[in-house]
Amino acid sequence: MQRLIPAKAHVYLEGPKSRGYELGFLIRVFRQFLRGFRALHFMPPCITVFGSARFDENHLYYKKAREFGQKIAELGFSTMTGGGPGIMEAANRGAFEKDGTSIGCNILLPFEQKYNPYLTKSITFEHFFVRKVLLVKYSYAFIIMPGGFGTMDEFFETLTLVQTKTITEFPIVLFGKEYYKDLMAVIEDMAQKGTIAKDDMSLVLLTDSIDEAMSHIARYLKSNYTIKKRFIKLPWFFEKN
After folding, report:
1. Is 111 exposed, middle or buried (0-12, 13-18, 19+ CB in 10 A)?
2. Given this model, what pLDDT does residue 1 score?
């Protein structure tokens, strides 16, 4: 039988394999989740910044993401990104420069994506779905900078989790009116055609203003976020120094 998909070294969504292989896959995924939980469990609460890996430090969006990282640190939150270059590096860099906690959740790719040098905590995952859980699990707001397929994947998954009340209705900021105007037109068309509720439009703030974005996030945090007290911090199964 002719293969429709060329053979690859490692493709896990490729149909059923032996039961031993599938069990091994489950164990590997469990270990990735466990490693992520142990690494991030005692980190300060986060705000996640998504965006393209392809902008260099001279690009306007890089400069804006760097400023977001600084503002997040000033707010007392960790900055979490995918840990790579571009927008991710910029946001981590801004937090790092303000002595804030700067977290990167990186991914193993066929082409190597290196950690950016502005991380205080970093972890690498084999699978995108594990990485996305960690990028969402510890965050109280999400800033989506201009980006490509990966950024859209992260944006729409986060938006769907909020829309379906799978996670709390955390603030979602879409930054870049000109960049995202056509995308917002598509979302507005969905609302007009009834494939989403018109109220769902309010789940996203589209802005070009860092101050507006941070004020939107800060208002939510002031009303909804409280720090859980830990009277005694004991080492346990998930803790990793």
Report:
1. exposed
2. 38
**Close Cβ partners of 36 (under 8 Å, ≥ 6 residues apart):** 105, 123, 125, 130, 133, 134
pLDDT at residue number 17: 84
Question: Within 13 Å of residue 66, how many CA atoms lie on the same side as its CB?
Answer: 17
pLDDT averaged per 10 residues in sequence order, the chain, 241 residues: 46 77 93 95 95 97 99 97 97 98 90 84 94 96 98 98 94 98 98 97 97 97 70 52 47
Query: Cα(180)–Cα(232) distance, rounded to whole angstroms?
Result: 46
How many residues belong to the chain? 241
User: Angle, nearest 10°, between helix axes 60-74 and 87-97?
Assistant: 40
- Single-letter amino acid code for the residue at 162: V
Q: Tokens 């590997």 — which residue?
A: 28
Locus of tokens 């911090």: 233
In angstroms, the CA 132 to CA 136 distance is 6
Task: Answer for the pair 197, 166: CB distance below 8 angstroms, yes or no.
Answer: no
Beta bridge mates, 81: 104
User: For residue 11, is it within any domain?
Assistant: no
Q: How far apart are the C-alpha atoms of 196 and 190, rounded to whole Å?
A: 6
- The answer to whether position 238 is within a domain reads no
Give the closest residue to 175 by CA, choosing from 80, 48, 46, 77.
48
How many other CB atoms sit within 10 Å of the CB of residue 9?
5
Q: Is the Cα torsion angle 75, 218, 167, 113 positive or negative in sign? A: negative
pTM of the model: 0.88
Total of domains in the chain: 1
Q: What is the CATH number of the domain that holds 44?
A: 3.40.50.450
